[in-house]
Amino acid sequence: MSTPVTERSLEGRSKRYKLAAKAAGGAAPRSLEDAVTAIKSACSAKFDETIELAVRLGVDPKQTDQAVRGTVLLPHGTGQTRRVLVFAKGEKEREATAAGADFVGSDDLMAKILGGWSDFDVAVATPDLMREVGKLGKVLGPRGLMPNPKTGTVSNDVAKVVKELKAGRIEFKSGTQGIVHTAIGKGSFAPDKLVDNVRTVLEAVIRAKPATVKGQYIKSIAIAPTMGPGVRVDAAKAGIQ
Asked: Does 84-166 match 8-77+169-233 at the fold level?
């Protein structure tokens, strides 16, 4: 994700980037609404840029009990079409297909994946198949595609999961630097929709706060377009502190 603009951060940048940085304004934190307006002004690519959110948390990434992870359904989706694969058999296979899953099956899909195929964005599995799906761990794990109960992608209610994933349900987690980083929409989204999506993610991150975390939990917030500079958001003005 692009970092908030400073004079130093502009050194060596392209003319297009500098113009985008000027449109975004300075490095001072601002209200969420103002930050979204600035980010939309900074979108200058010839494609519909993804808008990304980064939240730096006051957690210790080395402590497993301070990991922050969860899922949240964005009220306005991400603006991206996700290809959903479901490992299921029998009635559950039919339910997943009816719900709009792009690929549904069991042994056939597992063999295809072991052969090198991975043309999907998220995988879901019913609990009864996880023993077999677990054999794909070395293939799907490094790509972040392994079904996981913690992210709601292992479930008997496959129809609900598929519909939510298609509608804009995303996973978030704190990385090795204690930062939650996720897409929250597109540059073409109306400002109020981006604001709603950001607030929804922030509320989910706050709900996921580990009990062992002390002191300031939300350290900083920034949003940025794919090809442009970041804009810092004032946590107090965003209504979360």
From this structure: no
Angle 223-191-84 (CA atoms, 0-180°, nearest 5)?
Answer: 70
Domain boundaries, the chain: 8-77+169-233, 84-166
Is pTM beyond 0.85? Reply is: no
**Residue 163's pLDDT is what?**
96
For 163-196, what is each residue's pLDDT tens digit? Answer: 999 999 999 999 999 999 999 999 999 999 999 9
Helix (H, G, I), strand (E, B) or coil at 91: helix
Which of 10-14, 93-97, 145-149, 179-183 is the least confident region? 10-14
SS3 track for 28-68: CCECHHHHHHHHHHHCCCCCCCEEEEEEEECCCCCCHHHCC
What is the homologous superfamily of the domain 84-166 according to CATH? Ribosomal protein L1/L10, domain II (3.40.50.790)
